[in-house]
């Protein structure tokens, strides 16, 4: 079996004692690396100021080498905050209005990818299989090919791929499309993303599907497929069962004082539809006065990418909105929305999901949304809660037991909350069972195995 080299912007380096950072992706990829031996390479998350970053540090843990590099301040600004998070992220989430093109940032993105390729090159052996993750690293294969590497290189995009009319607003869309053609396999979250990608190739006449899951473009033939990422379902379900006795979870249970709990968990990101969701909750209470004082909406929202202006302004906007709604509909003995801006550990999160009668997951656009899957996995099979899920999350393609909503339609979301809270136990169990069966069959290990098997083929 070939050695595996994984490249991603963020690298979940195990803490002292070998504890793997939270998250199914980290767990699954670490397992794949342990099986084959290999390297996980990426950004350390640190800056070297304006001086040239120190040579790559490789920390060996068993059969896995974690190879991290710092970036300069300029690199972080242009590559990460600039092009990745102010151009690619908004465009791929259909937010043309938020994309801020700048030649400097575009150049920085390609420069940092060349830098990553040069730092990675000395570590690569001829038989290694290389798996590159996400929108930060699209040009990496092209750089490696230019240096003469003939290895199998796969790419997985964790975020959505937009239709041609959206993508083509980006001045460098052709370079980005060309970048993908240098991989042997390009994986997307859903069939819709894959269709959009094929549409982009056809529209410009720069490529086409040639059958059998293959595309041809820019003189190369490569595979393309939909590989919906899963979670570590069985382990997470166990986790949730045990979490009921966690002190924080017990305190949370006591503090809701018998009220029904609605739970939302999202990075503070404009793609997550937080303002529409809070509006929908308010609309639900106004339309159902009998629910006043009987429900608590807990929204856990860790800050994210705060250096990017659009995220900074979101922080203010959402906090103000939650405060306004609490002021408008709260009473002396009832705070309707509990809005938390800190990250919560997954052991506690699992228990909170299980307490939630409704999981409210209403992004305006999302690659997959693992929270939706975690909420389902955490439920008590005898008395499961109801998932209210945006039809624009990748997770909605397969979780058909959820109440699917259009998050732009505030009234429809409000109605779905009401329906979820009054759903009979039998219907809840039936809906949950279908979703859980799917999640157990399509967990994150299967996602990883399926992608690597197709890449090897
Ligand atoms: O690294 P950050 O800039 O702090 O952002 C965190 C991660 O956000 C994105 O997650 C995506 O991947 C999930 C797993 O496949 C998927 O469920 C979700 O819909 C996506 O938004 C991003 O793609 C990651 O690279 C970031 O590390
Ligand atoms: O306070 C928090 C909030 C979120 N998460 C985790 O962050 C991930 C979020 O992934 P998702 O796909 O839903 O969205 P992303 O943030 O990647 O866009 C999930 O595994 C959550 O359990 C967490 O550990 N603590």
UniProtKB/TrEMBL annotation:
Top-level taxon of the source organism: Bacteria
GO MF: alpha,alpha-trehalose-phosphate synthase (UDP-forming) activity
Matches recorded under InterPro entries: Glyco_trans_20 (IPR001830), Trehalose_OtsA (IPR012766)
A Pfam family matched in the record: Glyco_transf_20
Keywords on record: Glycosyltransferase, Transferase
Metabolic or biological pathway: Glycan biosynthesis; trehalose biosynthesis
GO biological process, one term: trehalose biosynthetic process
Record has Magnesium as a keyword: no
UniProt key word Glycosyltransferase: yes
EC annotation from Swiss-Prot or TrEMBL: 2.4.1.15
Catalytic reactions on record: D-glucose 6-phosphate + UDP-alpha-D-glucose = alpha,alpha-trehalose 6-phosphate + UDP + H(+)
Family as reported in the entry's similarity comment: Belongs to the glycosyltransferase 20 family.
Record NCBIfam families: trehalose_OtsA
Function field: Probably involved in the osmoprotection via the biosynthesis of trehalose. Catalyzes the transfer of glucose from UDP-alpha-D-glucose (UDP-Glc) to D-glucose 6-phosphate (Glc-6-P) to form trehalose-6-phosphate. Acts with retention of the anomeric configuration of the UDP-sugar donor.
Subunit structure: Homotetramer.
Protein name: Trehalose-6-phosphate synthase
């Amino acid at each position: 079996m070939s050695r595996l080299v994984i490249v991603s912007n963020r690298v979940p380096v195990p803490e002292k004692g070998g504890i793997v950072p939270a998250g199914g992706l980290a767990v699954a990829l670490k397992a794949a690396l342990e099986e084959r031996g290999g390297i996980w390479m990426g950004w350390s998350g640190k800056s070297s100021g304006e001086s040239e970053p120190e040579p790559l540090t490789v920390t060996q843990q068993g059969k896995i080498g974690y190879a991290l590099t710092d970036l300069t301040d300029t690199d972080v600004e242009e590559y990460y905050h600039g092009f990745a998070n102010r151009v690619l992220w908004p465009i791929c989430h259909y937010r043309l209005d938020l994309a801020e093109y700048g030649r400097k940032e575009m150049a920085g993105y390609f420069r940092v990818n060349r830098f990553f390729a040069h730092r990675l090159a000395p570590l690569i052996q001829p038989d290694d299989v290389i798996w590159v993750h996400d929108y930060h690293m699209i040009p990496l294969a092209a750089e490696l090919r230019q240096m003469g590497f003939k290895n199998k290189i796969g790419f997985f995009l964790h975020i959505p791929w937009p239709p041609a009319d959206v993508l083509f607003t980006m001045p460098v869309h052709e370079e980005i499309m060309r970048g993908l053609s240098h991989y042997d396999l390009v994986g997307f979250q859903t069939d819709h993303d894959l269709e959009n990608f094929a549409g982009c190739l056809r529209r410009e006449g720069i490529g086409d599907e040639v059958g059998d899951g293959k595309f041809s473009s820019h003189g190369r033939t490569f595979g393309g497929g939909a590989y919906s990422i899963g979670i570590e379902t069985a382990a997470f379900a166990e986790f949730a069962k045990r979490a009921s006795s966690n002190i924080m979870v017990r305190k949370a249970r006591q503090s809701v004082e018998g009220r029904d709990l609605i739970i939302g968990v999202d990075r503070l990101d404009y793609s997550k539809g937080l303002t529409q969701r809070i509006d929908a909750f308010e609309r639900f209470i106004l339309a159902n006065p009998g629910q006043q004082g009987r429900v608590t909406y807990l929204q856990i929202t860790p800050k994210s990418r705060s250096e990017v202006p659009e995220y900074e302004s979101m922080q203010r906007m959402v906090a103000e909105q939650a405060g306004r709604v609490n002021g408008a509909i709260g009473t002396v003995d009832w705070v309707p929305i509990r809005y938390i801006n800190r990250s919560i550990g997954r052991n506690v999160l699992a228990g909170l999901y299980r307490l939630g009668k409704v999981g409210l997951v209403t992004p305006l656009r999302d690659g997959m949304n693992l929270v939706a899957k975690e909420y389902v996995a955490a439920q008590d099979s005898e008395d499961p809660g109801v998932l209210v899920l945006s039809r624009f999350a990748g997770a909605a393609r397969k979780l058909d037991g959820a109440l699917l909503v259009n998050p732009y339609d505030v009234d429809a979301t409000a109605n779905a909350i009401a329906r979820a809270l009054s759903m009979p136990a039998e219907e809840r169990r039936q809906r949950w069972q279908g979703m859980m069966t799917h999640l157990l069959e399509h967990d994150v290990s299967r996602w990883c195995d399926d992608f690597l098997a197709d890449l090897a083929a």
